[in-house]
Design brief:
By secondary structure, this protein is an all-beta fold. The protein has one domain. The chain is built from no helices and eight strands. It has a three-stranded antiparallel sheet with strand order 2-1-8, with no helix packed on it. A hairpin with a 5-residue loop joins strand 3 and strand 4. It is flat and about 30 Å long.
């Protein structure tokens, strides 16, 4: 399961898809300018979201 952790305060979250209930998996997308953005996506293709934020910073997920 994709477990995201705040590097500032240590809080962590696990996420599941609201449609099928499956655990979201960590992934990245590449923007037009070449930068990469960490996302969480449904393994069954129901969509993806930008990774969560905490303490005004993106939470990280170990791949």
């Amino acid at each position: 399961m994709a477990s995201y952790t705040c590097e500032v305060c240590g809080m962590s979250v696990n996420m599941t898809c609201g449609q099928c209930g499956k655990e979201l998996v960590n992934d990245t997308i590449t923007k037009d300018d070449g930068t990469k953005v960490q996302v969480s996506k449904c393994p069954d293709g129901h969509g993806k979201i930008k990774s969560p934020m905490c303490c005004a910073t993106d939470m990280t997920c170990a791949v």
